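Title: Prediction job returns without error message
Component: structure pipeline
Severity: low
Priority: P3
Assignee: unassigned

Description:
Job completed but the reporter wants confirmation the result is attached to the right record. Sequence as submitted:
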Amino acid sequence: MQRFLKSVAGLIAVGLIIYGMVPWSKEEHWLPCLWAATLLGGFAIWPIRTQRATGIYTATQNLALFMIIGFTMLTLQLLRTQVIRADEIYNRVVAEDDGNVTSNIRLVRSTNRIKRGAIFDSQGVTMAENVIVSDNRSYRTYPIANQYDMRAFGHTLGYVSSIYGLYGLESSYNEYLAGGKGNSWQNLQNQLFSRPREGNNVQLTINAQLQDRAFKALDGRVGSVVVMDVKTGAIRAMVSTPSFDPSQLTLRLDAEDYAAESDRVVNYWNSLISDESRPLVFRSTQGQYPPGSTFKTVTAIGVLNNPDVGKPEEITCPNELFPQEGVSVPVVNAVDDEAGYIAQKFGQKFGLDGVYAFSCNTAFAQYGIRLQSEGRNLLEDQARRFHIYPADELPDTGDLTDLPSAPSQLYGGEDGDEWWSQPVAVADTAYGQGRLLVTPLEMAMITQSIGNNGDMMKPYLVERVTTPQGGELYQARPRKIGDPMSVEVSQRIRVSMKAVVEQGWSGATVAGVPGYSVGGKSGTAENPLGAPHAWFISLAPLDDPKYAVAVMVENGGEGTSVGGSLAGIVMTAALEINP
């Protein structure tokens, strides 16, 4: 029996070490795995060693065994750090909540003698490239700065700094851009003939002109804009304000006064990290906010996916609703007698279109309770299908892998499960409040899936990577990552989105685009730290959707007017430019 237990302990110890070593294991799991494996491994071999000696030899061999175990632990730690995870650690980039970034500046300094690959927009416009100065050294320049405000591209491109390292796409695609991946034969020739190494070129999905117009549409307000291609998931524009100019973080190697040049970069960096508005944070992918009434879109789809339970056309819009007994604060609507306004446009027997168009909180609270009542978990299941996760399933990152992105969560906190089990929590969540936290990218993805007949596509920013000679190293392939609704439901919810712009609150009409059928949904998200956040999602043209837009203005106030007007400007630009 003892021999069997020792064998099992040894196998478990080996399994823990292997798990801790594999690339997909979490960093925080390694040390517990190492210590647990040490204890189990010690148990597995200890009886064997102690049975061989008695007297003074026992103490000597026990000491030797302790030393062997200790050196084994150190060896495993060094093996993992300096061999197995060496590349990961060397290329690691850590972004703090304030946007401050820590990375390995050796990556940049080693590439000063490399002609770093260029970055192009979807139309082939050069966004970033390297210029060679004396002694075959080079540094990053930005040709589009002659046409556009570089702050529109700061978060997307990232930066290359000899002082502060790499960030953004410059970091995530550094192996390609620096020539370390995909161009080995050409690099070998360059080395043999003492020619400077060349990196590979990266073409993005974003359109520089649309990106610039989206940035200008924000007009200095704190917020973000995301424009997605409905059919593919390609991101055509993605901006966040406040932002930064990546050219100001690049040391010009041909500067006459290198000390002054270094001071310029340091001063600019210090101004960014001391700015309370956190300009280094990419709000489009990393900002997590309550979505307000835009989340009613998810609830409505849950109702349409489960019509027998949700009963989409059997709904009322009372002035207030108490979700459960003992609750002193009811769910209320934005205005009194909202049912009267709905009846004027949709008749007395209004259904989903009416309460969606006029964003009736009490109606969606009822929908949410129906979906979650009697042991059902339909609202949570619907959110999960859109990649909005409960606390115990929250992944480390969001769906965008080209840049750091945060996941969206249905509820959080240590008491999340207990909180979610209460009807009042379900009611608040169903109309977009509660403990919901989503990114603007997530809301764009929800809108994209509606326009794509229910298929959610993986968002991506990089279209392809090519060698300096034009050979193709990578080509993006649109990939489906979920089907949160059927074709019929996607077409039905578009009808409700159309009603928002054409029949809902008058302010939502500003989201329309002359000559096109546009659908949308506003959101005014309550914010305990200040004025509400203004949201709007839109889709156009509704007969054959091409673009999904999500906009958010921090502390912007009314989503219908503020969010709607911003979404209208951006959608107009997208349809005009047609990237």
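Comment from assignee: result matches the submitted record. Residues 56-84 form the longest helix (29 residues).
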